[in-house]
Design a protein that fits this description.
The complex is a heterodimer of chains A (about 240) and B (about 220).
Chain A lengths: L3 E10 L2 E11 L4 E5 L6 H8 L7 E6 L2 E2 L4 H6 L1 E4 L11 H11 L5 H12 L14 H13 L5 E5 L7 H16 L3 E5 L3 H7 L2 E6 L2 E6 L3 H21 L1
Parallel strand pairs in A: 3-8, 3-9, 6-7, 7-8
Antiparallel strand pairs in A: 1-2, 1-4, 4-5, 9-10
Chain B lengths: L1 H21 L1 H20 L7 H30 L2 H7 L4 H31 L6 H25 L5 H12 L1 H15 L4 H30 L2
Classes of the chains: A alpha/beta (about 240), B mainly alpha (about 220).
């Protein structure tokens, strides 16, 4: 069974067609990086895959669960981290995590919180109000929340933004651990070279279409990087 | 059913926790309602002869305007941190988010009424602390919360949401306002259950219709 299957997804806002026809699939255990210039539709696609935004047409299945027909089941298999940490600022980190653990109907919530807090390095901040934390710690808390229900598919929108170097290394460890346990990751990033190092596949969005390329070998990575650089220069020139 | 109640309780408890820490909504709603009462008290020559005639209208106008302020605030808190989207990432039906938010708004408007009703009774010298009023208040507040939660979610993405919410909310709640004002008029004039039953039936029908329709529409509203 495919981890993620995206078929002919189309999305427009007013008269601007952002995604014209997106088709790709991911196997369980694959790490894929989503590439594209600013405004190419990466974040929109991640929002559609996270079921925050409805596509105009097309279908998406997460481990066989169609997101339009089986939304709650598909969401139970998915964990998402976006630019905004989406946390309640006047609640503590622990209170935020408890709330979402309850919404995901998890058991042994205290143990899960401790385990995931250690994984992302926020164990010393668990009882701090989110409002008092730096953006980096808020981002780590959002990551802990996304990992709490042990999702099969992890969607990350520039997860390294706002993180310092040690935190980025910690994030790499989480991604590596996820890959090794057979789970699937789709991420956008602004550190492309680094993302290509840890990915198996690159999905570039150009003019609303997705182009999928393997990044398993060193030469694959170089080809994707130079193709992306050319495409980025062209887009910048157009702008 | 048990799981749905647990989800509603989790979201409702979160709203209560945030409100006990900030007291944004209850203070805004009760202060605004009291201000409306005070303004009308000074603006209109209220005397023994007209309090029963105009008092009920002033009471419910104050609560409706104040309710809009509270509903705006309740959703502003979710918009500021994009937290409504975090709730939407969870594997729960959007209907449950709607019901939980509606119940939270119901509790906050009810809490404000606990402050406003006795002050209204003293200012206008009207006997509103009666069982009939409790039922009128309950049904009206359910309707306000059902519609207000949907429209607050709709206006959330609009830049001028403080303006948009009353523009959407107040015309739609007019039948409910009529039921509340008319039945309150009967109560302050010494009427009892048979006198207000017709208006209560209207309020019940209104509440049921809008809870069902709003829960159905909410999903479309909160997704782009």
């Amino acid at each position: 069974m495919l981890a993620l299957e995206v078929e002919d997804v189309i999305k427009s806002f007013a008269e601007t067609m952002v995604l014209r026809s997106i088709n790709f699939s991911l196997q369980p255990g694959e790490v894929a990086v989503l590439l594209g210039a600013n405004g190419a539709g990466k974040s929109t696609l991640l929002r559609i895959l996270s079921m925050l935004t409805q596509p105009d047409s097309g279908s998406i299945a997460v481990y066989g669960k169609n997101t339009a027909k089986n939304g709650p089941e598909a969401r139970a298999l998915t964990g998402s981290v976006f630019h905004s940490p989406m946390l309640y600022a006047d609640m503590s980190v622990r209170e935020n995590l408890i709330l979402f653990a309850e919404l995901y109907r998890l058991r042994n919530i205290d143990d899960l919180i401790e385990k995931n807090a250690v994984k992302v390095g926020i164990e010393s901040r668990l009882d701090h109000r989110v409002r008092t934390l730096s953006h980096g710690f808020q981002k780590r808390t959002a990551l802990a929340r996304a990992l709490m229900h042990d999702p099969q598919l992890l969607l990350l929108d520039e997860p390294e933004s706002g993180l310092d170097s040690p935190s980025v290394l910690q994030l790499d460890n989480v991604i590596e651990e996820y890959r090794n346990s057979g789970r699937t990751i789709l991420m956008t990033t602004h550190i492309i070279e680094h993302a290509l190092e840890i990915s198996d596949k690159a999905i570039s969005i150009t003019d609303g279409y997705a182009h999928v390329e393997s990044t398993t070998t060193h030469s694959d990575k170089s080809n994707v990087l130079s193709a992306f650089s050319r495409s980025f220069q062209k887009t910048s020139g157009d702008l | 059913m048990k799981e749905s109640l647990a989800v509603i309780w989790a979201i409702g408890r979160k709203d209560l926790l945030l409100e006990t820490r900030n007291k944004d909504i209850i203070i805004a709603v009760s202060a605004f309602a009291l201000l409306v009462l005070m303004v009308f008290t000074f603006a209109i020559d209220i005397n023994q002869g007209n309090t029963k005639l105009i008092g009920p209208g002033i009471l419910w106008a104050g609560i409706a305007f104040a309710g809009v302020t509270g509903l705006n605030r309740a959703f502003a808190l979710e918009v500021e941190g994009n937290t409504l989207e975090a709730l939407m990432l969870a594997p729960i039906s959007r209907d449950l988010i709607y019901v939980a938010k509606m119940l939270g708004n119901f509790l906050f408007i009810t809490a404000a009424q606990v402050i406003v009703f006795p002050i209204f009774a003293v200012l206008f010298n009207l006997a509103v602390l009666r069982w009939e009023m409790l039922v009128i208040s309950l049904l009206t507040t359910i309707g306000f919360s059902a519609i207000g939660t949907l429209f607050a979610a709709m206006s959330m993405r609009v830049r001028a949401r403080e303006v948009m919410l009353p523009l959407l909310f107040l015309p739609v709640v007019t039948p409910l306002m009529m039921a509340a004002v008319e039945s309150t008029s009967h109560v302050v004039n010494g009427g009892s259950w048979p006198d207000i039953s017709r208006w209560l039936q209207l309020a019940v029908a209104f509440d049921i219709a809008f809870i069902v329709v709003s829960a159905f529409i909410f999903q479309q509203v909160v997704e782009d």
